């Protein structure tokens, strides 16, 4: 029997782009649990815009695989959350429909790009949220809003229905106020899907355990180096000490590939994005033309009007990286660097079970603080390595600096999302 | 002045006849259906959709690769070819670029100077884009309609080395390729646009010209012949041949230059991140090839004892070969002659394929010819009557019924003897001329007998009978 609930949140942080006033839901493990879905995940019959003008009015005729799974589990999907346009940003300020605010301080950003999802959960507007993480887009806003967010191992959750920004890097993942509910949500959305060729048959059915006796934790010095706010580093070091007190052993390590990670990340994601976003040409989506034009003129005009500045910047960067004569110097080189990051993780994770460090180098920025794109890109340095390698990574709140939350990031081996979740759970249960 | 050698290489796009599309489950059989009815989020390129590889398409492509003696790459890769065009819904085509499915093959053709191996550079898989229907001209049309039914139809692209030496050889290569694809049962040559050709052509020592947009077999020879003449004339006039892309305008039989800015694309190829590398090692061995045209030709010669020329003709298409094998039991030699030398011409004249001829009726016709019941002339007449009936959509009569209705049965020996006797009596002057040594008189007398039996006797045979009779009388 289908049941309904009303959803009329006091959305003073602008977490939602679309809300569903009367939500229908069914039976199942998530029956009646309110779940918000990031607006880059297609929902049948519900406008899906990626926070871009170019998709305004687009109502998908089909559900993403995760949405089908959520519905089958009885979840009440209450709305679509704000984000940086097409996932391109670290603050949710790059939304065509205005920024989302941090529930803990409305003068600050919630992080991004899944800022709407994090703010909705952080502000208690809904129980759980789905985000996507291309270079930190789940973990960053989780850290900034003081909630838990997991970027699963690449392939563990189907991407079918996730509007691609950078296919080879991104994963859909769960966001929640605590590790147990995150784990529950993950068990619903993980698993294989024939419609996503990169998905892997590794379902998740795990109850988080707080016993971490003998767990070996690698602590890369680069995660506490230049550019990391010393106060944030201090809070995270204390958190790692707490894990030690619970029976874990720590081991210092280094990740030399970190110095290439950001470049490798930005070349790869912009290259893929330039191709993924080429379909938004005004022929099938977006407003119609007011006067007839030749098709290439119409394309330029639609794309110039429809995309925001940051999206246009990344499309141009990516187009350049793939261009004949530059491909070898940029895209191909980025893949070599990417392999170095993978190799580093593989080497380190031979000796330790997980790697721990801060999620973000700083606390939530003030609105408008990061106006220089390069400064913004630099703040992704601690989150992009996990995407480049495809390994699982979680952010769990571990303390505060200037009253704003700090996230502890735990990165694990391929398909060892369980251990990453257990480590976060053990820390969380010990209490901050 | 010595003529410069012609150098031709082909790029052939061929639709694979799978039931569903290359990357989704949509049906490929949209021939008479409304536009945009065979579509789904995947082949429409809707945001969030992802491609799923059709295993059948890979199997089909592997069959072709094996039949063309290619080296099959154990691991190949899909790439994106990025370009903007309204009928390309994702703004990129999923294709294969630097790691194609197969490379280094060859196909034996009946070349201008005997049999020759044409080298195949590569075979790769890709998807067809949608179809644009321009209302008005492309430059100044009112609007363009787009039909995505075709979007995502599996294609293979077959690229040859520049081994072909004349437009005729290019046509022969295509005929042989088509026959091979038909034998493999991976291709429906009757589907519109199922085979499309781009050709690179140069005269030795000059720049290469690419001719695009050739969508029929006959068009290839026409387009290339036009190009050879055009390029020769330019050289004769001392002009340079520009390296360019030209379009074939089928209706006018000419190629025209197409040097527009929008076509100078940088396709920005990169590996398709939504698909895993394609590993086919375990499949390749499982693929069994059917008998191919060359093998069938040899078998026809040995099994049916027919000439190599006939065998070549009869194995030139799968349906033709199957037709021959169905009618051969009536008499292999006569069936070969009558199919290759008479039937094909009659079919061609009517723009028919071999399927137009009912096999049972043809077999019956061969049997009548074999039993000496009708003359060759009557047999051709019967063939025409049957095909004309088919053309008019009527149920064709059986050959025996036509013989009976038109009285085409060869006159019997007794009747003929009687008629000869009558003619000898009726034409004393001609008989006298014969005895006087005038040989034309014999022809006249044969003609008289033929007239009497309304052509239902064999003139050669009559000639002998008449001669015997007259000489006996002496």
Q: Greatest chain-chain interface?
A: A-B, 45 and 31 residues
Task: Give the H and E element order of chain A.
Answer: EEEEHEHEHEEHEHEHHHHEHHEEH
The assembly state of the depicted protein chains is heterodimer
* Count of β-strands of chain A: 13
- Put simply, the count of helices of chain B is 15
Strand content of chain A: 15-25%
Order of strands, widest sheet of chain B? 2-6-7-10-1-11-12-13-14
Given the C-alpha coordinates, what overall shape of chain A results? globular
Q: Provide the domain count of chain B.
A: 3
Please give the order of strands in the largest beta sheet of chain A: 2-5-4-6-8-7-12-13-11-9-10
Describe the sheet with the most strands of chain B: 9 strands, mixed
Separate helix tally of chain A: 12
CATH top level of chain A?
Alpha Beta
Overview of the molecule:
- The complex is a heterodimer of chains A (432) and B (474).
- By secondary structure, chain A is an alpha/beta fold.
- Chain A has one domain (1-432): Alpha-Beta Complex (Amidase signature (AS) enzymes).
- Chain A is built from 12 helices and 13 strands.
- Chain A has helices spanning 65-72, 115-122, 139-145, 179-189, 230-245, 258-276, 295-306, 309-322, 331-351, 373-378, 384-389, 417-430, and strands at 3-6, 16-19, 22-25, 34-38, 76-81, 128-133, 148-151, 171-176, 216-220, 249-253, 354-358, 393-401, 404-412.
- Chain A has an 11-stranded mixed sheet with strand order 2-5-4-6-8-7-12-13-11-9-10, sandwiched between helices. A two-stranded antiparallel ribbon of chain A has the order 1-3.
- In chain A, a hairpin with a 2-residue loop joins strand 12 and strand 13.
- In chain A, helix 6 packs across helix 8 (309-322) and helix 6 (258-276) crosses helix 9 (331-351).
- The longest helix of chain A has 21 residues, at 331-351.
- The radius of gyration of chain A is 20 Å and the shape is globular.
- With 474 residues, chain B is an alpha+beta fold.
- Chain B folds into 3 domains: 8-202 and 263-284, no CATH class; 293-406, no CATH class; 413-473, Arc Repressor Mutant, subunit A (Orthogonal Bundle), CATH 1.10.10.410.
- Helices cover 39% and strands 19% of the residues of chain B.
- Chain B has 15 helices and 16 strands.
- Chain B has helices at 55-67, 167-183, 217-236, 281-284, 293-304, 308-314, 318-327, 332-349, 359-370, 376-391, 399-406, 413-426, 428-435, 440-452, 459-473; strands spanning 6-15, 71-72, 75-76, 79-82, 92-95, 102-111, 114-127, 131-135, 143-147, 154-160, 195-203, 209-214, 244-249, 254-257, 270-271, 278-279.
- A 9-stranded mixed sheet of chain B has the order 2-6-7-10-1-11-12-13-14. A 3-stranded antiparallel sheet of chain B has the order 5-4-15, with no helix packed on it. In chain B, strands 3-16 form a two-stranded antiparallel sheet.
- In chain B, strand 11 and strand 12 (209-214) form a beta hairpin.
- The longest helix of chain B is centred in the middle third of the chain and has 20 residues, at 217-236.
- The N and C termini of chain B lie far apart (69 Å).
- The model of chain B has no long low-confidence stretch (mean pLDDT 90).
- Classes of the chains: A alpha/beta (432), B alpha+beta (474).
- Chains A and B meet through helix 6 and helix 7 of A and strand 9 of B.
